[in-house]
Write a structure and sequence with these properties.
mainly alpha, 104 residues, two-stranded antiparallel ribbon, DUF4219 domain-containing protein, 8% strand, 57% helix
Length: 104
Amino acid sequence: MTTSSNGPYTMEKLKGTENYSTWKFSMKMVLIHEELWEYVEQETSDDKKGNKALARIALSVQPSVIPYIRTAKSAYEAWNNLKKDVRRQRSMQKTRLTQEFVWN
């Protein structure tokens, strides 16, 4: 298990679909506690706090996940990129499982 130390918090880093739900809840709690959650919910103009929220997210993912957020300019964009990728991966998994079931 790879963990991330976000200040006084220790949590498992995001790997992908396998731990997304747990990571999402934990990361949301960290951002709420640090009064940064609003930067995930909507685009804002506070660069300093917005950048801090983006850094918290980026530092809590495994290296294999970084390509999905590397170009994000905000916490809002990074969070939504991760959400879209997980949805895409889950959809592909469902399709693959359905095909395996039908063909076997």
